[in-house]
Design a protein that fits this description.
Layout: E1 6-11, H1 22-37, E2 43-48, E3 55-61, H2 67-84, E4 91-95, E5 98-103, E6 117-120, H3 128-145, E7 155-164, E8 167-177, H4 183-200, E9 206-210, E10 214-222
Antiparallel strand pairs: 1-4, 2-3, 3-5, 4-5, 6-9, 7-8, 8-10, 9-10
InterPro entries: GNK2
Pfam families: Stress-antifung
Protein name: Gnk2-homologous domain
Amino acid sequence: MSQPQHMHTFCNPSDDFTQTSLYETNRNILLTAFSLSSSLVHYSNATIGLSPDTVYGMFLCRGDINTTTCSDCVQTAAIEIATNCTLNKKALIYYEYCMVRYSSVSFFSELDIRPSVVRYSIISAPNSNRFNQTLSDKFDKLILKVSSTTLIPYFVEDLERVTQLEGSYDLVSMVQCSPDLDLSTCTVCLKFAFLRVSTCCGLPSSALTFTPKCILRYRTFVLTSPAPSPSSLPPISPTSPPPLPLPPQSPPTQAPPNT
């Protein structure tokens, strides 16, 4: 299969470790463990080593991909994050299908909304006069359906045929949170992700946004041909928007904003 598409890498050069240190060893053990476990699950977090060389990490794959694609993505991301952030104690990497993150400070169960990235289509959305409201209504419903008890926790996907006077189209949408969040924090994260994607780029026909703790995606298909299934969707455009101003509350651990 084709290589996963890289979206962005965030390194934190303000906090480094020395080469061949115990921290480096622990980080490499963590990333190797993720490469192995990603063939079985879509999410994992781990803590490796003792203070002051403890490394905390996680990976999260999109719930709409299979374990083979998840594993390919995490393995690629693990290699790239260690290569691109060689001596950095904190780093986060986004690919189209997954994210991988590590830090010297625990971030488990905490809401992190930055750094975030958005990838969107250069094609305008159908029925543009009504699209924002249609999209808002759809994600309001999806966020309410999020549950920790689903097969892939905090993952909801939907395919709806939208029929309006201006024309009909299929809307494929998904939301997902990192399973270490509680339900209320997951909801906050997804609402921010929707705000991010709905105000950054005009009215694109497709968009994908990642934050460190949640993912939101939608695609539209005008009904000039049979509608595709979610698993057969083509890759999204690599265009990225400028950063969105953050809400007053900022996360405790963050990389320099750059989208």
